[in-house]
Structures are given as C-alpha cells and as structure tokens.
Amino acid sequence: MQGYRYPPIRIDAKMYPIKGMAVSQIVKIKSREPSRSIDEYGEEEEDEQVAQYLEDEEFEKGAINMYEARDYSKINEEQINQKVRELQEIKESEMEELKIKLLEMECEVQERARQLQEQLSQKENEVQYKSHKLQEAQKVHQYEQEQAQRILLMQQEEMLMMK
C-alpha cells in the first residue's frame, strides 16, 4: 500500500469535500450514488442505472416524472394568450363604457343646445313683440303729437283772428 493509511478512493465526476471528512463518510456517500463517468467531450455519461437513480431521486423530491413532464412553453404561451385575451376584453369593455359615456354626453350637449335655442327664439319673439309694441306706441305718440300741433296751429290762427 505504499504508505497510505487508507486505500485511495476513485472519485468520478462529482467532487467531495474530502478535507476534514472521514473515509467512512466518503465511502458512505459514494455508495449511495451511482458512478458517473465523463466521456472524451467532457460531458457526463449516463447509463440506465444512473437514469433510474435520477428519476427515483426526482420522484422522492416530488418532481414530475421526466416522461410525464408538461411542455411549460405551451402552458406559458397559453397563459400569456389567455391573459392577452382577458386584457383585450377588459380594454374593449372599457372602450364600450367610454363610448356610452361619450354618447350620453353628446345627448346632454344636444339637449342643452336645444334648450338654449328655444330660449333664444323665445327671447327673440319677446324682443320682436316689444319692438312692435314700441313702434305702435311711437306711431300713436307721433299721431298725438301731430294732433297737438294741429290744435296748436288752430289755436294760434284763432288768436290771430281775434286780434
């Protein structure tokens, strides 16, 4: 054994913290895991034993069996598409609400414009009526003034004749 107290342990792809670790602990860890070797490209080679061990390990952790795994990209895509559809529906419903509010506001504005137009035409009618009355009053006043002038002229003529 050439001076080794313990026989050397072959450590494959996984590194163990040997410093301060008893050989029995390393052997125990080593015996729990299947051997992994590295091929000429630096990648791990897996045999059926290793694959089964990894599958069992994942199953123990509660992971999904690798053959039953869902395609998360499709799920994410579906979720994204569903979220986009929901947002579009919300946007469309908000647009409809805004259109309804806009129509209501337009109706209110038109009603107010109609009311103002009615008030304006009513005021115009009142002004025309008052104008007509004033014209009639002016004619009456002018007629009375002419009458008064005639009477005055007649009185002046009578005074001249009396003299």
Structure summary:
Keywords: Coiled coil. This protein is mainly α and 163 residues long. The protein has helices at residues 23-32, 48-61, 72-162; strands at residues 37-38, 44-45.
Describe the 3D structure.
Keywords: Coiled coil. The chain has helices spanning 23-32, 48-61, 72-162; strands at residues 37-38, 44-45. With 163 residues, it is an all-alpha fold. The radius of gyration is 55 Å and the shape is rod-shaped.
Major sheet details: 2 strands, antiparallel
Instruction: Give the tally of β-strands.
Output: 2
Strand order of the largest sheet: 1-2
Q: What coarse outline follows from CA principal-axis ratios?
A: rod-shaped
Total helix count?
A: 3
- Beta strand %: under 5%
Straight-line distance between termini: 179 Å
Ranges where pLDDT stays below 50 over 5 or more residues in a row are: none
What order do the SSEs take from the amino end to the carboxyl end, as H and E?
Answer: HEEHH
Content-based structural category:
mainly alpha
Average pLDDT figure: 78
